Amino acid sequence: MRIPAHSVCTAIRADIVSGVLPRGSRLAEEQLARRYGVSRVPVREALRTLESEGFVVSRRHVGACVAEPTEQDAADLLEMRTLLEPLGAARAAQRRTEAHLKVLRGLVRLGREGARRGQGEDLRPLGDWFHETLAQASASPGLTSLLTQLRHKTAWMYAVEEPARPAEAWAERGAIVDAVARSDAERARMLTAQHVERWRGTHRLRRTGRVRGSQPPVNTAGARN
User: What is the distance between the alpha carbons of residues 137 and 88, in angstroms, rounded to a whole number?
Assistant: First the structure.
């Protein structure tokens, strides 16, 4: 069975983001193929995709390596999210479906309940899911793809602290959903811009050292593509 390149790409990206594949490390196709239990063909395709996303660079006489972003690269990343997240919310207000609204409202409900219970760290995946769904509701594949890449890069470059007032963060997300539900694009844009800007201070640059851990082989039994 041929393993799709996008599955290999997801696995390599996850190891880069987590630090298992450290910044600046060489990405030899043969070694990666053994690591993920695949042939070199999907590895080669995955590396091309990751290079286009900015996670991988090609160096003369060395080959593919994990990129080494600068502090300026990291600052630019947050700046781009500050500009693009509100655009996605505005488009979502104009193009969302009832299915998108159902998911967004459900996530806000779960987030508010978790904040009341003081779950803290457990709410982060919900927040990521919320913003991913909001981007998908924009019905703009190019923008959704770009925002997804920016979120992956944010997780790679920054450690995000839990907001001191998680209930406030989820109240803001609830207001965004209300604006989207009313098809009020300008209010959705404004509220999202305020939300993103307010929580930028929770981002701290990661240290570049290796983070221990491992990614299971892509083609293990029961693995999802």
Answer: 8
Token pair recorded at residue 71: 């502090």
Structure tokens at 53: 């996303």
CB 188 within 8 A of CB 175: no
Structure-derived torsion over alpha carbons of residues 225, 66, 160, 72, reported in degrees to the nearest 10: -140
DSSP 20: S
Cβ of 209: how many Cβ atoms within 10 Å? Answer: 9
| Contact call for residues 208 and 22 (beta carbons, < 8 A) | yes
Tokens of 78: 């947050």
What is the model's pTM?
Answer: 0.79
Q: Residue 199 pLDDT more than 90?
A: no
Tokens of 144: 């959704």
Given its phi and psi angles, is residue 22 left (phi above 0), alpha (psi -120 to 50 degrees) or beta? beta
| Residue 125, both tokens | 């995946």
